[in-house]
Specification:
By secondary structure, the chain is mainly alpha-helical. Helix content is 52%, strand content 6%. Among the domains are: 17-160, Up-down Bundle (Glutathione S-transferase Yfyf (Class Pi), Chain A, domain 2); 194-263, no CATH class; 271-343 and 570-627, no CATH class. The protein has 28 helices and seven strands. Helix 7 runs antiparallel to helix 11 (274-290), helix 13 packs across helix 14 and helix 22 crosses helix 23 (594-605). The radius of gyration is 25 Å and the shape is globular.
């Protein structure tokens, strides 16, 4: 087989596993057969094959029809899709220099590849012909929507630009993707580099034995980072780190938060992301102007349900004042807690690194809820089997059967087969819950196989978390926040698994950015359901249920801490909007200007709280600068408006008896109207069908403690 460096585009070796669809159930990729050197040749060959498919559509002499235009577009790219699904999985969940090199090489090629379709005036002319003839074609709803989405994609991509403008656009797209890849790779490597070694075990006071053992295992696995220390605290992607709420040593808390916030800011130079931040802000702004938009944020909003940056700004303004006021009140309460702490010589001013620790102490005092007490009742397998999966069984009739015979892509990855109530196979669910070296921080869902009736494919979906792996033989005990993340990511998984559409480009989570978080946030609601929690919250050693009084206190926490949570989230949203509402000429030139820009943006928005840093600073804001949620991080809050309104539907109109909506009738309705639809129609049409009206923000305000206390439910 020729070297990948000399392989002609379109040529694929006989031993390459991507040559044909996987023979494993549901076309699960055969990760055991995949080697890194298979990926680049398969991607090059896949692009060449799809270009040929597009050329056949463009040059078809017959009049445009659904069967010779839309259907072949949807069928095209099978080889490329197979290879990219595996590359994306391995880059995000395994990592390493070889995979980074493949990603960096193919990223600009893929940008050019997309432009080859979306800037093809011949194919667009066929779409225009279909659009003009649509009233006479009697298209079904999904096909009509598919035509609409293709036509919109071409127009937004710039198909009506002049030749010279297209040339500049292609160059911008290649450079943007290259810079996004650079930012992503440096951010992931920065997580590893920023790990905090702890030489003195006494500084780990406040942590339970299992956590301490996990930190010792980290140091043993990464001796070059531990630098002789016996324990190593690895970082997660957000600013706040979980151990900040538990560590009693104030100096170590300060060091941990400083390591988190310092990522990407200069040293070492090959992990500095500030240049990529400025370049991406400038390049995206130039592209938006070329495409006829005032800035990149306007370009992004126009493709979502928000439609305009004015609508986004209005929502953020409505949330910011009350959130900051609540956070300020919380800060005063925490200052009292630190004043009363005999371990802290006074007077001592509350610092950002203290917030999580004293918030947890106040929570314990007020509700007597302590993660150290809760964790023995929150064992991962039981949370999954008796919580996450059992809830899906109650709502949708799904069953989950472990498939240890099917290969994962790394140690600890597990596969379940998902079936309907009647035993019909629905798809596969892949769970990757443990942190590992090279894995991207945070939590996410992605798909290995998209559902499609046209292609006869059933879905294969993956959930990723970054839970610290315990020593061999020890149980995996979760925090309450990690349990919430399990439910959240599985909400995304349900969106993919329950998709029931004809066309693959409309399947599952292929909805606008500001809707994609909606089903996942709805799925978090079951943690407020007593019946759900009592099933999975059992002591890992004795099987005893969580004591009733502790469960009462857990569920009684309500909006405690929402001032901080909302303000730190808003901080990141506001930074994302500020960078992406700039004109090209207004983007700073000096990387050293990044922190000043951030500070000014938060000050203008009324969200500059020293004690509440944004959930992500620009230099490690992967959502905004890694090519995922650029100018779209507002989507979480925008989706939460839909989510909170829908939770009221589940718990009132859909509820039958005392189950709070946890019944098959409610699940059937939510599946039929929303989850199963994917993007086969306007998502707001689906919401209105469910609720009988447009969404209202009041349920969200109540949930986050931002509404007047006497505000009743929406009707």
């Amino acid at each position: 087989m020729p070297s990948p460096d000399t392989l002609p585009e379109g040529e694929l070796g006989q031993d390459n596993p991507f040559r044909s669809p996987s023979s494993l159930p549901y076309e699960l990729p055969d990760f055991a057969a995949v080697r890194t050197e298979h990926l680049r040749p398969a991607i090059l060959a896949g692009m060449a094959a799809q270009r040929a498919e597009w050329e056949a559509i463009a040059t078809d002499p017959d009049l445009p029809e659904v069967a010779n235009t839309l259907v072949p577009l949807e069928r095209s790219g099978a080889l490329l899709d197979r290879a990219l699904a595996v590359l994306g999985t391995l880059v995000g969940s395994v990592g390493g220099a070889e995979l980074d090199a493949v990603e960096a090489d193919v990223a600009p090629r893929l940008a050019a590849h997309q432009d080859a379709l979306l800037l093809d005036r011949r194919i667009f002319a066929r779409l225009e012909s279909l659009h003009a003839a649509a009233p006479l074609l009697d298209l079904d709803e999904e096909t009509a929507w598919l035509l609409h989405t293709y036509r919109r994609r071409f127009l937004r991509a710039g198909v009506r630009l002049t030749d010279a403008e297209m040339d500049r656009l292609r160059a911008l797209n290649r450079e943007i993707v290259s810079r996004e890849t650079e930012f992503s790779q440096r951010t992931v490597r920065g997580l590893e580099h920023g790990a905090v070694p702890v030489a003195d075990p006494a500084q780990l006071a406040g942590l339970d034995g299992t956590t301490v053992a996990g930190l010792a295992a980290n140091a043993a696995e990464r001796p070059e980072q531990a630098a002789g220390a016996g324990h190593l605290i690895t970082l997660l992607l957000p600013t706040q780190q979980p151990l900040l709420s538990q560590l009693t040593d104030r100096d170590l808390r300060e060091r941990l938060l400083a390591a988190s916030r310092g990522r990407g800011t200069g040293e070492p130079a090959d992990l500095d992301t500030r240049g990529a931040v400025l370049a991406l802000a400038r390049l995206r702004a130039e592209r938006a102007r070329l495409l006829g938009y005032p800035h990149h944020a306007a370009y992004v909003a126009a493709d979502g349900t928000a439609a305009t940056t004015a609508a986004v700004t209005e929502m953020l303004a409505r949330l910011t004042g009350p959130a900051v006021a609540n956070a300020t009140a919380e800060a005063a309460e925490l200052q009292q807690a630190i004043d009363a702490d005999p371990q802290v010589p006074g007077p001592a001013r509350l610092r950002a690194a203290d917030w999580a620790y004293y918030a947890e102490r106040v929570r314990q005092d007020r509700f007597a809820v302590d993660d150290a007490v809760l964790r023995p009742y929150l064992e991962l397998d039981r949370v999954l089997t008796d919580g996450v999966f059992a809830t899906a069984t109650d709502l949708y009739g799904l069953t989950f059967t472990p498939r240890p015979d099917l290969p994962g892509y790394a140690d600890g990855v597990r596969v379940w087969e998902v079936a309907e109530a009647d035993g019909t196979g629905l798809g596969l669910f892949v769970g990757d819950y443990y942190a590992r070296r090279g894995k991207r921080g945070g939590a996410w869902m992605h798909q290995l196989v998209d559902q499609s009736r046209l292609l006869g494919r059933r879905p294969v979906v993956v959930n990723n978390l970054n839970v610290t792996r315990p020593p061999a033989g020890a149980p995996t005990l979760l925090t309450w926040d990690e349990v919430r993340t399990c439910f959240h990511e599985f909400g995304h998984a349900l969106h993919g698994l329950l998709s029931d559409v004809r066309y693959p480009s409309l399947a599952g989570t292929a909805v606008p950015r500001d809707v994609v978080e909606y089903p996942s946030q709805v799925n978090e609601m079951w943690l407020a359901n007593r019946g759900v929690v009592t099933r999975f919250a059992r002591h890992h050693a004795t099987g005893e249920p969580l004591p009733a009084e502790l469960l009462d206190r857990l569920l009684a926490q309500g909006t405690y801490g929402e001032g901080f949570a909302t303000t730190e989230h808003l901080g990141a949203v506001l930074l994302d909007q500020a960078w992406h509402q700039l004109a090209p000429e207004d983007v700073p030139d000096d990387p050293a200007a990044v922190p000043a820009f951030e500070a000014a943006a938060l000050e203008r928005a009324g969200a500059a709280l020293e004690l509440v840093p944004p959930r992500y600073s620009s230099t490690y804001f992967l959502h905004a600068f890694g090519g995922e949620y650029d100018a779209g991080y507002y989507a979480y809050l925008w989706s939460e408006v839909l989510d909170a309104d829908t939770v009221e539907w589940f718990t009132t109109e859909a509820a039958q008896g005392d189950d709070g909506g946890l019944n098959r009738a409610a699940g059937r309705r939510f599946r039929q109207v929303l989850l199963g639809r994917g993007h086969s129609r306007d998502p707001m049409v689906s919401f209105r069908e469910l609720r009988g009206r447009d969404p209202r923000i009041e349920p969200l305000l109540r949930r986050r403690g931002l509404a007047p206390a006497d505000a009743g439910p929406s009707r």
